[in-house]
Amino acid sequence: MAKTTYKKKVKNGKEYYFFRFRHKNLKSPKDLYGTTVKELEGKIKTLRNELDNNITDNKQYFGALIKDWLYNTHMINKKPSTKERYDSIFRNYIEDSDVYDIKLKDLTASDIQGYYKTLVSKGKSIASIKNVHKIIAPSIRYAYDNNMLFKDFSRAIILPRVEENKKLTKVSKVQPFSLQEQMEFIEVIKGHELEMLFVTALDTGLRQGELFALTWNDIDFKNHSITVNKSFKSVKNIETGKHEDIIQTPKTDKSIRDVPIPVHLAKQLKQHKLSQKALKLKMSDLYQDNKLIFCNQYGKYLNSSNVRKRLKKILLDNGLQDRKFHDLRHTFATRLFELGEDPKTVQTLLGHSNISITLDTYTHVLDDLKVKAVSKLDELYRSMGVR
Prior knowledge:
Helix content is 50%, strand content 10%. By secondary structure, the protein is mainly α.
């Protein structure tokens, strides 16, 4: 048996290796025990590391840390819609997960890596895992900065990638109207209660929340433009559990913008304003005047779910392919590209935070336009008699 300097001591009727540990960060010595020398030395090393690095709590669990950090620190200055999204991610992916009940002192990069691998095996999307990482990574950095972890290993975690074969078979989520379909749609919505909402979406590319929040003060009829500086959304209050209608700033700083509108749309909106005034007089005291351009018959904010259902019914009843409301925005951008507009201008009009979002979103459109652009060379050569 190898020699050891550790003494043996009987505790609770059993013999253990014993060491009285002293450290400058301990007010009094701490007695450590181990059934083997290896076990005892492991405990000594762990405790020394914790004290050397000023680790404040070696009993806290990762789940408790991340919940406290998320709700009491990280979400303090976030928009209600962002709070709702983070709350959903936490409850669906982190709470009761494989990493929730791991002690902070035992947590490693491989634990998080293994959890992400499990999510992939369960068929969760890469986008969903990236959203989870947006909570887990900063919580690890927070724990490190507050002396709860030995090191910040958040940057050592490698996020899974989309497999190459899935990239090749990936179906675009962007489903704009073709020009012919757009003309058919405009025709079948004439006289519909939501006609001007749909037409404005097609002619401005505004997001649904931006359209719902528009007031008549946001339209400059003289210069034919709309000022976008707010957005409407119904969000779940994470404290009460009830949904609340809120007005908040748009998605990004670039989303605050002035969007020029075509003359024909300005004329239609003026007529829409007159019709709205007539409705207001008809409804009398039942009408709640919020100065909204698009509202229900009582002047209140539109309901996103109701608008979606009504759009689907219009498309179904008229033999048009099913689409999301957001595809009206995609249709606006697609028409601009087809008319030869450059991506930077489209980015500005859509309010994208950077050009890469615009290029990535409309890859399919740009690829088609590249083919058309190259085909023009054939036309040029033919006109010059070159075969």
